[in-house]
Amino acid sequence: MIKFADEATIIVSSGNGGDGCIAFRREKYVPMGGPAGGDGGRGGDVVFEVRRNLRTLVHLRFQQTFKAQNGMAGMGKNRYGRDGEDFVIAVPPGTVIRDFDSGEVIKDFGVERGIAGAGRIGGAKKAARDGDSLTRWTFLSGGKGGKGNSHYATSVNQAPRISQPGKPGKTAKLRIELQLIGDIGFVGFPNAGKSSLLDSFTNARPKIAPYPFTTKIPNLGMLHIHDRDIVLADIPGIIEGAHEGAGLGIRFLKHISRTAALAFLIDLSDDNWKEAFPVLVEELSSFSPTLAEKRRVIIGTKLDLPEAEGRLSELSSVLPGEKIVGISVFSGAGLDELKELFHSMVVEAERLEAESRDEEDLFGLADPSTDIGGDIEFAEDSDADS
């Protein structure tokens, strides 16, 4: 059974409009009868809706074709056909919708502040203020219903026998991608302690075991500090050559591309601890230079083990320009300091982002629309830590 899916290909179609009706009213004692054909109903729309309780696209793997309901045809006595029902496709926050053929981004639900910033200051307030505009988006509109023959009566043609057919709906083939949304992304070799830290800081319960690649899918957890929530994102361990497909490869690096900062976890009890940080940075740079340039903190883990003795100070001397914190999930050493550091990093990132956004608005550089869509036509768990 598929437990996690971050990509899916689907075909969506809006409903056809109903045909207009040709009918005449012939009733006893009704001298002014004439044409009485009603209009057809409008076809249903294809609507994407963000559901915060979803964390995967697995539901789109079992059904790949989605079609809204067609509008009903018009009827006699000037009765209009019923509009077709919309088809609502639920997606998790952070979903990116692309055209299947060109790969062009049609809609990115991760850039909406009311969605991406739900765990951040002001995010929930903005979502409440803007209502459903941030969580529902109509991609394909249904076809319009045709007009009945009652619309075509004139002084010289009082019994028209023409009506308008309904407009057809639209069809599109889409590629749906998921990029999980977090504030702090964990990066490290397998068995570096990422899942143990996530388990210690949040209510997430990733699988923890003493062997590499216990983490096979990304995990999210919520750290509550100073009356706010910080989303922590843990991905499977990275090894040298990941950008070329080694290990689990770079498939899951996209899930930390939206984070405000990165936390590099280095196992100080490992014999190759000195090579860990340069290798990790190189792999991130090979995937995305922007990802490697995010603000970061280096966390030396497993200080409780005898092999790690003295290595934290040596790590600080080897990387003098980096923020370095030593922790032990087993003994609790350094965890409170790390929580405060996570908080300050996220707050600072939000402040800089707000200033940048205000500056763009001031000079008229902000693009009010991030999507191309609308009415367009197209023919298990976490890593081995201790």
Brief description of this entry?
This protein has helices spanning about 115, 125-130, 195-200, 275-285, 290, 310-320, 335-365, and strands at about 5-15, 25, 35, 45-50, 65, 85-90, 95-100, 105-110, 135-140, 170-180, 185-190, 220-225, 230-235, 260-265, 295-300, 325. It has about 375 residues and is an alpha/beta fold.
Please characterize this protein's 3D structure.
The chain is α/β, with parallel strands linked by helices and 386 residues long. The protein has two domains: 7-178, Spo0b-associated Gtp-binding Protein, Chain: A (Distorted Sandwich), CATH 2.70.210; 184-363, P-loop containing nucleotide triphosphate hydrolases (Rossmann fold), CATH 3.40.50. It contains seven helices and 16 strands. The chain has helices at residues 113-116, 123-130, 194-201, 273-287, 289-292, 311-318, 335-363, and strands at 7-13, 24-25, 34-35, 46-50, 65-67, 87-91, 95-99, 105-108, 136-140, 171-178, 184-188, 219-225, 228-234, 261-267, 295-301, 324-326. The strands form four sheets. Strands 12-13-11-14-15-16 form a six-stranded mixed β-sheet, with helices on both faces. Strands 5-1-10-7-8 form a five-stranded mixed β-sheet, with no helix packed on it. The longest helix is centred in the C-terminal third of the chain and has 29 residues, at 335-363. It is rod-shaped, with a radius of gyration of 28 Å. The two termini are 28 Å apart. Residues 112-133 and 366-386 have low confidence and may be disordered.
